[in-house]
Amino acid sequence: MYEIWLTLNIVYELMWMYLPAVVVLLLVLALVYGRALQRKKCQWRAAIRPTLMVAVVVAILSLWLVPVSTHSTLADIAYWVDWANLMAICAGVALVAAAIVWPVFSLRR
Amino acid sequence: MASDESRLSHPDPSRRQFLKLGSTLLPFSAVASSALLSTAQAEAPAKNQQKTRAKIVIIGSGLGGLAAANRLHRELDGAKITIIDRKQEHNYQPGYTLVATGVWPKDKVRDRNRDFIPSGVEWVQEMAIEFEPEQNRVRTESGKTIEYDYMIVALGLQLNYGAIEGMDVKAIGDNGLGSVYYSPDAAEATWKAMDQFRQKGGQAIMTLPNTFLKCAGAPLKMTFMLDSRLREAGSRQASKIDFYSALKNIFSVKVINDEVLKRWRGLDIPVNFEHQLTAIDIAARKASFSLPNGQIEQREYDFIHVVPPMSAPDVIRQSVLASTEGVMAKGGWLEVDKKTLQHKRFPNIFGLGDINGTPRGKTAATIKKSAPIVVQNLLDVMAGKSPSLEFDGYTSCPLLLREGAALLIEFDGDGNLTPSLPMIEPLQDSWMAWLMKYRLLKPAYLSVLKGRV
Predict the structure, then answer these.
(1) What's the number of CA atoms in the CB half-sphere (13 Å) around residue B201?
(2) Chain A interface disruption, residue of B21, B229, B428, B438, most A CBs within 10 A
């Protein structure tokens, strides 16, 4: 439990550190979901496939981008713990990307 | 009066139980659950505040002092809490090695103390210059006398650059002189000197004194990072790195000492033991080392990293609060019980952080673990009970190896490795350990400082 509490606190502090990015992300999410929910005929189910494709592409790109953005390279990932964490982080990034594009794809006619 | 050096030294931050968070749990649990943590939750007062009219004085506004202030402010109703410290700037010292090796800009380690002091806590912006624990009072540099019922001493430690003849902290950054400890500016200037040195290479000297150190891993990190920077620049072949330790080892935990020495043999970094840096000629780039037999050896260098001897600040060292016997007396460290962190002769006084005369652990990780213990034990004493919690001497060190890799080392006061997550090998090069140091430890530090974890 302590580790979870500590983790929550770290994320909380990170959110304050990167507040502008967090605000932009929330605004974008509000915009695309607001737009999609206003539309009566949204293709939510049909949008799943392209959304997943985008998520996979983003996850693969993140495998390279996340280390680069932290003064590292993919060559530094050699330990299974590192791979597990990197993949989890990439999955998180992909999840965010999917959350953004899903309503956008659902708006397509 | 406390020296400038003591004012600039505050408990070093950076480390590893913070780290424990990350290795596996962070990515999985953090993002999904972060939205649950509202500001209100984060700063909510304790449900059962202890009512009191006690006067509590906290000496020092570093990580330890502010963490204690925030916790006491939350736990107590009616207490008069006073912080005494002149320092306005709050420095995230665990980040100094990142600044000094060109990873971070120095702005990342600079904050303002006023942003972290809870409302309702009085801040006396002066240094304490005299302690009278028999009368429960402290005198400040303006002559003000402040009385207390309970006191927490969290004054950090003192960097004794003056013990090295010819050393001038203003010269850090010039003539190949580096020293990571002194200040953010000095850390930045150290990178400037290192960056210039790596363009051509040459003779580098890394030093380690024979006193207790804050962040004892910092001299090792600087050495690993210098080697790495030289290799990046293609000048390692044209360079020689020699490490001079005033001790018979380079780290007090044997398994880590042996591991680092093994790695350094592989990197061609020889170590000269029992060589104490005693003098430096900055303009001529010459360093003098004293040997156990009294001989003095002089070495020329192109780049040197100076680690000053450290002690308790003079104001403590010369007071009745200092240790009077044993190995801690030499540095004038605060005489506390190593488990309860209560002063051995003045039970209404506790010590927190670097100032303590405890065997190991002058790091932020130590404060993270010990601040809640000190505060709870103080609350116990205020309630007329004996201290209920014991500190195991925990500390940790994300030992930088190069950009992108570090070791995540945790150990207790007896020098036993105490990995928070048993499946993680402490001596394994790890990107995750690097990521923690690079991006996650500062938010963890701030959480400690605000008294939340």
Answers:
(1) 15
(2) B21
Instruction: Give pLDDT, residue A3.
Output: 84
Exposure of A74 in the CB half-sphere (CA atoms within 13 A): 8
Q: Do A72 and B431 touch (CB under 8 A)?
A: yes
List chain B residues with pLDDT less than 70.
1-47
What is the second-level CATH architecture of the domain B161-308? Answer: 3-Layer(bba) Sandwich (3.50)
| Phi, psi angles (nearest 5°) of residue B181 | -80, -25
Half-sphere exposure of B263 (CA within 13 A, CB side): 22
Q: Give the residue from B326, A84, A68 showing the smallest Cα distance to A76.
A: A68
Check if the beta carbon of residue B249 is closer than 8 Å to that of residue B259.
no
Residues within 8 A of B (CB atoms), A 34-93 only: 67, 70-73, 75-79, 81-82, 84-86, 88-89, 91-92
Going along B191-327, which residue ranges are E strands? Answer: 203-208, 240-245, 271-272, 276-281, 286-290, 296-300, 303-305, 310-311
pTM: 0.90
The confidence score (pLDDT) of residue B17 equals 43
Enumerate residues 6+ apart whose C-beta is below 8 A from B279.
B164, B165, B166, B287, B288
Report the distance separating Cα B192 and Cα B306, nearest Å.
15
Classify residue B437 by its DSSP letter: I
Give the nearest partner residue to B42 out of A3, A12, A75, using CB atoms.
A12
In this complex, do A11 and B20 lie within 8 Å of one another by their Cβ atoms? Answer: no
CA distance to partner chain A, nearest, from residue B17 (Å): 9
Beta-ladder partners of B90? B111
In whole angstroms, give the CA distance from residue A98 to residue A56: 9
Contact B24, A81 (CB under 8 A): yes
Query: From the candidates B84, B215, B241, B271, which is the catalytic residue?
Result: B215
What pLDDT is attached to residue A108? 83
The interface predicted TM-score (ipTM) is: 0.92
User: Looking at residue B46, what is its pLDDT?
Assistant: 59
Q: What is the pLDDT of residue A1?
A: 80
CATH code for the domain defined by B4-159+311-393+443-449: 3.50.50.60
Sequence ranges of the domains in chain B: 4-159+311-393+443-449, 161-308
Residues of chain B contacting A15 with CB distance shorter than 8 Å: 34
A40-82 pLDDT tens trace? 888 899 999 999 999 999 999 999 999 999 999 999 998 999 9
Neighbours of A57 (CB within 10 A): 12
**CB neighbour list of residue B258: distance below 8 Å, 6 or more residues apart:** none
**Between helices B364-382 and B17-34, what is the axis angle to 10°?**
90
Distance between CA atoms of B358 and B234, rounded to whole angstroms? 43
